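Reposting from the mailing list since nobody answered there.

I have sequence plus structure tokens for a pair of proteins and want to know whether others read the tokens the same way I do. The first protein:
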Amino acid sequence: MDNLAVGENILYLAQHPANGLYYAGSALVFRTVFAMIADKVASIAGESHGERAARGFALTSDDAKLANWHMHVLLYRMIEPLLERMLGCPLDTLDHVRINVCDAPDPEKVGLPAFIDIGPSH
């Protein structure tokens, strides 16, 4: 708990006790996991817990982006021949139309809910 950043040690009054601890608990778990990742991968001598957590987050984020790119390539290569068979021609011979999607979420960010819905405490 000593390694939480300013504002992460907030407890909320909530209908269910788990929601009262959700924010601080999530911050504690994620900071700990990211610091552990950095401990295993990088040379971290002299770095604070916060610096190790930030390094672990960056490592995790980079790995997730790379895995997402590989999944995109794999799925496209699986779908491409099916689309070409359905259309009766190679995809690279078709004209492409780009559609601008306004206010789309950033695909490189993940949002966590502020609270979880567990139901009333018994």
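The second protein, same order (residues first, tokens after):
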Amino acid sequence: MEPAWPILRQFRDSAGFHADKPLRFFSARRNLRTKIKQVEASIFEFEKLFEFFLDAEAKELPNFEEVLDSFLDELERAHGGTFRRAQFKAHVMIPTRAASARSE
């Protein structure tokens, strides 16, 4: 992943989240586009690493969603209000059964 970090950082800093001066903006976009194969390979490597950790987490905490619901119950009692559980779980990226089956 490391070889693509400077490319991704340049894009993030100059074009992705904050528009920089025009020359830097277009330079960052061009750099990303001309090195797209390297960037794609790095992103694929990151995705494989992420899937590995999700799979490891599922094995270490098979009842993770249940524990998360209990934790959210506790937070709601302590601080009032409610959480949008489906949205919260999507952000926590709980692996779905389909994703788990895919990795087997």
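Reply #1 (J.P.):
I read it the same way you do. The helical segments are 5-16, 22-34, 36-60, 64-79, 85-92, 97-103.
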